[in-house]
Specification:
Blueprint: E1 2-4, E2 8-9, H1 16-20, E3 58-64, E4 67-74, E5 91-95, H2 97-112, E6 120-125, H3 132-144, E7 148-150, E8 162-168, E9 171-177, H4 191-196, E10 200-206, H5 218-233, E11 239-244, H6 257-260, E12 266-270, H7 271-281, H8 290-298, E13 306-310, E14 316-320, E15 323-329, E16 333-335, H9 342-360, H10 371-388, H11 400-414
Parallel strand pairs: 3-6, 3-10, 4-8, 6-7, 10-11, 11-12, 12-13
Antiparallel strand pairs: 1-16, 2-15, 4-5, 8-9, 13-14, 14-15
Length: 415
């Protein structure tokens, strides 16, 4: 399978290429070491600095699952009862959609945003700090410089989630033990800390279908609470919410998703996920373009939300209120070594792109998202995601120079 290295004009929006030139990315190497929160985790780095209680302009709170992934890279699947030799050792990586997204986003911000303006990234998840899986995740967060808030309840003695990831022929499959992720409830979130942030706040829910404790209105209640309280206590500060669906292992593709979409500003899916959700509501019409079917299904659920669908070799589209506002097609393709985490890397790039567009114009606390901001998000998301597929490990950030090279190549192609 081949994946896009960058994205370009599909011809559906004549102003797209001009908008892509807007807001060139500021390049400044900057890296800071943050701390792991000590509410539940017994960890030597436990200061509560940099957790959205200061004066920085923007705070990202990434919420969702965390796992330890054991990667097997197969040249050929074994026959039943057979054996296949692995050309390299089985490797372990920090994983889970929220961990991946936080890691990629922290790396991107640390390299592409001037130091004084760098937003914070906080990971809100669940793990057992007493097992080696949980310790690996805490070490990963410390290494990459972002705080980890452990939302695990004291009465939950489950192990940290972990899974086996098998990569073969450019595709990947998983076998997962959810552990304490299975018991993660939306009410376990430390919403008060998020509400208190004296900055703009972006809450990103990574892997909605992976956390059943968020389903059927549970997450919606917490998101509404955060918005309402921040309007009262931080009236001049913007609050934005995005959500990535991820794969639904139950194959129901429901989980009360329709209930939570009205509380979102951004909904991000890949084309397979979007079509699976669409089929839950009605059958696909082979005579109607699939993008039009996505628009007609998702837009009525929240006309104000931006719906983003990534399409692999066909790039990505974004629509709002029944209209396509951005469409990017690949300009360069790359052979995928490991596609795991590419979607999370895309999301991290997208989040950086939309907010960097605002930051460069001094509009951090200006409500609303222009089509140009969304287009910048798609552009940077595609550059980040496609730079990741040539790296093994879902939570291993792409080289920032590779991301910038793809970004600049796309700008040149549109010149």
């Amino acid at each position: 399978m081949r994946f896009p290295r960058a994205a370009g004009n599909t011809g559906s929006d004549s102003s797209l290429l001009n908008s892509l030139r807007i807001g060139a990315i500021a390049w400044a190497s900057h890296y800071t070491t943050s701390n792991v929160d000590s509410r539940h985790v017994n960890h030597p780095y436990c200061a509560r600095q940099g957790l959205g209680l200061g004066t920085m302009t923007l705070s990202f709170n990434i919420i969702g699952d965390a796992y330890v992934d054991y990667f097997c890279f197969l040249d050929q699947w074994p026959e039943n009862g057979g054996d296949s030799r692995l050309g390299e050792p089985v490797r372990s990586y920090a994983g889970g959609s929220s961990t991946n997204t936080a890691t990629h986003l922290k790396s991107i911000l640390g390299h592409f945003v001037p130091g004084d303006d760098e937003p914070e990234v906080v990971l809100n998840t669940v793990l057992n700090p007493q097992d080696h899986y949980g310790q690996l995740l805490m070490q990963h967060a410390e290494k990459h410089g972002f705080p980890l808030i452990n939302c695990r309840r004291d009465d939950d003695h489950s192990s940290t989630g972990h899974c086996i990831a098998i990569v073969s022929g450019g595709e990947r499959s998983f076998m997962t033990h959810q552990g304490c992720v299975e018991n993660f409830l939306a009410s376990d979130l430390d919403t008060e800390r998020i509400i208190q942030a004296d900055s703009a706040v972006h809450v990103h829910v990574a892997g909605y279908f992976n956390v059943t404790g968020f389903w059927h209105g549970n997450l919606k209640e917490q998101l509404i609470h955060i918005r309402n309280e921040r309007r009262k206590r931080r009236p001049g500060r913007m609050t934005t919410v995005s959500l990535v669906t991820q794969h639904d292992a139950s194959n129901a593709w429901d989980g009360g998703l329709d209930e939570v979409i009205p509380s979102l500003d951004f909904l991000v899916m890949n084309d397979l996920e979007a079509s699976k959700i669409l089929r839950r509501g009605k059958d696909l019409d082979p005579n109607v373009d699939i993008v039009e079917q996505w628009i007609s299904f998702f837009s009525p659920l929240n006309p104000k939300a931006v719906i983003v669908v990534t399409r692999g070799v066909d790039g990505a589209v974004a629509f709002r209120d029944g209209e396509l506002i951005a469409a990017l097609a690949p300009a360069i393709t790359v052979e995928a070594i490991d596609p795991t985490g590419a979607g999370d890397s895309f999301t991290a790039g997208f989040l950086h792109g939309i907010w960097n567009w605002k930051r460069q114009r001094g509009e951090i606390d200006n409500n609303g998202w222009s089509a140009d901001a969304v287009k910048e998000g798609l552009l940077f998301g595609c550059a980040s995601g496609s730079s990741t597929v040539s790296i093994r490990g879902a939570s291993v950030p792409a080289d920032p120079q590779d991301i910038m090279n793809v970004y600049e190549q796309q700008i040149k192609k549109g010149a």
